[in-house]
Structures
1.
Amino acid sequence: MKENILLIGGGGHCKSVIDVIEQENKYNIIGIVDKKENIGQKVLGYKVIACDDDLEELHKKYKNAVISVGHIRSNAVRVELLKQLKKIGYILPLIISPLAYVSKHATLQEGTIVMHNALINAGASVGKNCIINSKALIEHDSIIEDNCHISTAAVVNGGVLVKKDTFFASNATAKESIIVDGFVKAGSVVK
Amino acid sequence: MKENILLIGGGGHCKSVIDVIEQENKYNIIGIVDKKENIGQKVLGYKVIACDDDLEELHKKYKNAVISVGHIRSNAVRVELLKQLKKIGYILPLIISPLAYVSKHATLQEGTIVMHNALINAGASVGKNCIINSKALIEHDSIIEDNCHISTAAVVNGGVLVKKDTFFASNATAKESIIVDGFVKAGSVVK
Amino acid sequence: MKENILLIGGGGHCKSVIDVIEQENKYNIIGIVDKKENIGQKVLGYKVIACDDDLEELHKKYKNAVISVGHIRSNAVRVELLKQLKKIGYILPLIISPLAYVSKHATLQEGTIVMHNALINAGASVGKNCIINSKALIEHDSIIEDNCHISTAAVVNGGVLVKKDTFFASNATAKESIIVDGFVKAGSVVK
């Protein structure tokens, strides 16, 4: 039987998250938590059922949550939500698209989501609360620290260390064995 | 039983189209329509059986056609062919590689082909007569209008509007929520 | 029953090679051949069992070998190893990740490895001792000559000729129908 899960955040990234969770077919989406004024609206057929103030009350019924707020430049909202959800007692499961490939020699932590067609290779490790977005590539031995967003089609080559809170933008490339920290522009090459 | 289909155009793109149709395994390729002087030649084992002048005659026997002419810079030939084929009464089926992923929350229209390893995410829509080429990524909520070519490994991020007739070249990137119109250079980043 | 295979080279690229061979599930990895001082060390659980001087002796027991040394800028070690291994009489099987797609209309030669999520399209041909790395795309009718490394997420468009010994770096793009020779920088576009 599928476990229930709440989605926290009802914007654009939430749609991609829904698609991954539907394809993974492990969780039953109960609804979305968003701003008070959005209650009653729908995202891909799922209702906004509550706002952030209701998270404690909701936890009496539901134990799993996924942060479906995106991270472009700032991850402040995601980091704050993680703290709040953990404090209440929510479980933030690791979500992996069945269309992604994660090596059995890689390790990933709670609250992280691996989107469609992403690839995490042998010896890599990914911390908490990360987005490994559609078609992103994390090569062998790379380390992605907590709260990072490796954006769509981005390429992190072998042995790279991506420091916590980094936004590694779409289709950017990190050459092997370097340290990346903070902000990487779309399409750029980091040496 | 598989339906019959004609391929219109016998160049390089045609080979990729053949590979997709063979893998999809829904259509039986009858042959290729190309220039008169190429009749009798073969592309990956399929014969050039007729030229454009024969399209009306061929339609008496065959109802499905796919435009297998490429689109680099100009899509004039593809647009003209679409008009001609529709006028005669051909059906231009939507072709999707089984190696691509198209979200059930995305919509696509006739005459469009989604090549191997392309990904079209939730909430996206793609118009008529488009090529979504190998490894291209169309993210959530993006709109690709008619007659576009989203080329190999190109990345259209969330909420982008790609206006009709656009050539979005190989490995280019469009940042989220922008409008793209006309011509995008290979490997470039559009903001 | 699975055949035995030796891995020649125990660095970072070796981990990706192990992941591919494990997923392919055709070969039983006997161990790794590396520098004398590394004998006894382990890579993803596989032991370094010998050094280059032992290759002749090992061949009495094992006939298959894969070169698991990487190729960044220089392929001198890989080329020298190929010569040495062939002289002794080793078979260097073509290795293809089950997560890659190789068109049945493409041809590949011995000693080449196609990593996870790579795509080799119809009419393409790849020579000996090449690395077609994770997420690389080789489009229709392209020719990759011997001893090349098409690196992670690199895009070789239709009808390109990549001359032997080329290092085509990560996420670079070659426009269609050109000749590429020698060294291509990460993220660059070759016209």
Note: Chain A touches chain B at residues 12-13, 15-16, 18-19, 22, 44, 72, 99, 116-117, 134-135, 152-153, 170-171, 185-187 (CB under 8 Å).
2.
Amino acid sequence: MTSKVTAEEANAFLTKAFNSSQNRSEVILMEDGHAIMRLKAGPEHLRPGGYISGPTQMTLADSVTYMAIFTRLGITPMTVTSNLNINFLRPCIGEAVIAEAKLMKLGKTLAVAEVEIRAEGSDKVASHVIVTYSIPAS
Amino acid sequence: MTSKVTAEEANAFLTKAFNSSQNRSEVILMEDGHAIMRLKAGPEHLRPGGYISGPTQMTLADSVTYMAIFTRLGITPMTVTSNLNINFLRPCIGEAVIAEAKLMKLGKTLAVAEVEIRAEGSDKVASHVIVTYSIPAS
Amino acid sequence: MTSKVTAEEANAFLTKAFNSSQNRSEVILMEDGHAIMRLKAGPEHLRPGGYISGPTQMTLADSVTYMAIFTRLGITPMTVTSNLNINFLRPCIGEAVIAEAKLMKLGKTLAVAEVEIRAEGSDKVASHVIVTYSIPAS
Amino acid sequence: MTSKVTAEEANAFLTKAFNSSQNRSEVILMEDGHAIMRLKAGPEHLRPGGYISGPTQMTLADSVTYMAIFTRLGITPMTVTSNLNINFLRPCIGEAVIAEAKLMKLGKTLAVAEVEIRAEGSDKVASHVIVTYSIPAS
């Protein structure tokens, strides 16, 4: 099955919905239950030594899960994060960050996704995240 | 026991260490194992309807835990977040956000804090966070 | 407000619903949004050195949250655990274990409780748990 | 690389170290950073309707992570669970349960594993678990 929302539509939604700090991240893949975003790291995302900050990684995990849900439900802005659990495994060092979300479960009230965050070009996972969203009753 | 770092010293450290998006948050209390930060919400922290965004709350929880660790260890920039688990309980709506961290454990390798995030003036907890930091070997 | 279920009723329910390994634990307090259980430690709960095992603590946290939900909703066996996050802070050593749950949120679809596990007689928290239950649509 | 401990050695260790309620679970695979356990469900593991209980799944996730660590470090009984985060995705119904752990990270002080629990014969994940163990200083 294909995604209900294309990467272009997802990016158009994000540009309209969020503010300037988001304009360095873009959706690069939208498939059924699967989304990938890429963030070009700017000064506000970095710590001394070129490390991508923890908050940057958490924010990206949250966003890419939002997108993964859209692949199944279409654009549903009223879904909200219920829980996020992140384990920082290794330093994330690079000019860009890749966040990949795969839906583990999409029920009537909850969606649960597994997200991997890594520096672009690296095959090692920097952080591993489980993100749970509440699906509002329609 | 008093904190090893005063609120003033903590704020001076934060101003030097981080970049512009942090300049709306300040440390307002530093006690032994206990820290409180206050964030004046700006456009980059808000979602339509005046909701304080999830990422804003996660970032603040991460920062105030960092501060709570400083109250015991002094300024130790090499401590890094290992795990963060956040439950969003209620919408956080207000002009400012209060984040309060209490250390539950400070061992040789790990520090674990409990953090409550709420809108200033509200007695209801918007999000509850457990943040774990790794303490590097000295 | 008082609990919708008394400690006696809770214990009667547990005795009927679960099997023999549970008969060492009992509900000792049921108040609105607040429940306490006590487990008399048997060989199956202990590790060498008298440590109360991790699984014992997790199981007790799960049960006492179930009870805390009953204090508000009455006996609702169809509620099921959705997520459990436990941090083991200190060894739990003792002849009995106390588990205390306080509901942080009770919504239409989710209940979230904070649980502290400690050895009876100790004022130090052995493990801290956040337990989330799904409330089925009625 | 092969595991430092074979399935036979792992089972011999478990038989000696733990007590009777464990004798229905066995290690069926030990590879480098990868372990699988199988539990034959008994009355104490089941809820009405043939559901494998949450505590059974949490306990198994904890054990199989312990085994996954042994594949890299050899038999190291002093490693202890630091954190466990479980998401129950679907009911687990079956006569036996399979738990599979893969180490995501093995550092000097922490090991983090991803665990999937499913009913034997099912391709759907019943629960997804992230288990963190502390590695004691040697």
Note: The first strand of chain D starts at residue 25 and ends at 31.
